[in-house]
């Protein structure tokens, strides 16, 4: 299960699912970037890898060439229709972004911040009483999920069924389903759950409400009301896109904090620096990787990529490019440049980035108010994983 012996073979075998990359993909990725800007893996049917910040940004800013019709490598059609808006291109995508962008803007996040803080406190207080926790299941997974329910106006009593289906879909459904039709069938109960939630919101009334479902019911797309299935689609996609990535970011950031007590003290002593701390640790701890499919032949750095070829874009790893960030492997909370691509860039920039940043900021503030010091539990070993959302599968923490 070890890494291939040569760099050429490591490139050819590269995949976010390779066992030899799970613990530390960063060191091999830096090796890839030095090896070349455009490389070719033969895993999952073959795809190109853009290793440098400038090329990933270039691809993101040219969606007419780099289509989002297939965003996974390997790609699975989770729904029988395209996911709104992440699998859409061109005018269709622009119009849906116009419809959805106001649902996740900073004003909406500000409105729900007290409820998100309360959810964080509710998760932290039992940990304080025990003096220890398994951070991923007890905090990093639950807080983004509760935030999703709060933003969408769904009762917190639905937390466990939502998490159970999401966990099954990511760990078993998408990797193991023999056909996409099996995935479609398995998703029908949750699809119906979201449809029922929209019906409840209509029945209760939407006037004066700020939650996503209320505003979605009142929104327009291309001069008409969105259909029920379109609203369910957008909600389902928001769940899939936000929960795993925010959980992954929390896991990576708190693992770093647990191993660096001086940064814990900085959070306690200088709370005004928390936004800068969050931004730098999001850059330093790469999370997200997605894919694109080419709509035409294109040449880059002397390499011709053909129409129909797939391309991997590692948004997180781009933050470690030394051509853009001085001393990229060091953590520097006073960096002058924060133009990272952790949330993407261009037309497909993450709609939920304001929510994600706020969740992480609230987590740091509320956690360190109640748990001023902590460390990785003695004799436990954090379990890291590399995937489309790189993160930590298990993280045992002890207070004190």
From TrEMBL:
It holds the Pfam family p450. Keywords: Heme, Iron, Metal-binding, Monooxygenase, Oxidoreductase. Transmembrane segments: none annotated. GO terms for molecular function: heme binding; iron ion binding; monooxygenase activity; oxidoreductase activity, acting on paired donors, with incorporation or reduction of molecular oxygen. It comes from the Bacteria. The keyword Acyltransferase does not apply. InterPro entries: Cyt_P450, Cyt_P450_B, Cyt_P450_CS, Cyt_P450_sf. PANTHER family: P450, PUTATIVE (EUROFUNG)-RELATED (PTHR46696). Belongs to the cytochrome P450 family. This is Cytochrome P450. It comes from Kutzneria kofuensis.
